[in-house]
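Supplementary Text 2. Reproducibility record for the structural model of the 357-residue chain.

All settings were left at their defaults, and a single model was retained for analysis rather than an ensemble. We include the record here because the model underlies the residue-level annotations in Supplementary Table 4.
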Amino acid sequence: MKNFTKHFPVLSQYTYLNTAASGLLSEKVLDYRQNHDLDFLIGGSLLKDKQGKILTGVREAVGRFFHCAPHRVALTPNFSYGFNTLMEGVQKGKKVLLLKNDYPSVNWAVESREFEVCYAEINEDLESNISEVVEKERPDIFAFSLVQWLKGIKIDQEFLKELKEKYPEMLLFGDGTQYCGTEKFDFEASGLDVLGASCYKWMNAGYGNAFFLFKEHMEDKILPRSLGFNSLQGKYKPHEGSLIGKFEPGHQDTLNFGSLKVAIEEIENIGLQNIENRINDLAQEAKALLGNAGLLEDMVVQRNVHSSIFNIRGNEVTFQKLRSNGIICSQRGDGIRVSFHYFNSSEDLYKLLKVLK
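Retained model, structure tokens:
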């Protein structure tokens, strides 16, 4: 793939291995944001008159990108807001399966409410662990991240489809924040009933935008109570009580949601298959080299399915050494998390290994 330094100016200053914490702002998204606020500056409420058209375009872009009908796409300011709205609409007392040490915005939203909760372990046998707990506990809902934030362990999509086929009454709620934008994903053909994701990471859409996708039958499964003027406004919210309207009760930020549409168009222009191939190549190379260097846990090395996020062995001294050499990463858990996106290269990986050595 081409050099993306001009596309993402940060890359001219740093070796950026931190998409798992925050994606980058591109020149094209910046151009949109500047033009949007210039329109607001000189037009005032004339910009607001365009709000419906802007948000409809965003909803249709998200639906097209993830293969979901636009009337089942809700736009929320972040994943946590949307997921709390979702769980507030679930009947109290339901049994929910979680993964131990999953992302707090998933687990806390469940644990803080009146649900019966059971857990599966995250390790090299993740799918087997889930199957065993489901067979034993028969949960009503399984809520989880598609890619784990701490170590990058990625759940097998085919396993999710098989799980749904075996237990069709169990609802699957997925957090795609560390997943969406890394590979092709067909929501309608997936095993998920709901998918939500913040888009400031792998979608490179900036902050303040997220989405939730719903299968058609979810209209009858959850009853969120959120309601506001905007719940009834817009092309795809034709009736009172519309499910996506319950997730959009107030005025929405056309600056941030419009940024998401531009980010999706950028990905489509580059080619999602090209992005997927690049990330997979980097992930396999990184896993092999980091594993051979003894920097990865056994549970990661032994997995066949993994993302491009890795938690390597290292302490505060190691972290500061990386930062002083211009390598941007994060301290997470008991190690240092690095992540590779399509704008990264093998040279970035080699520099990481050289500094660690």
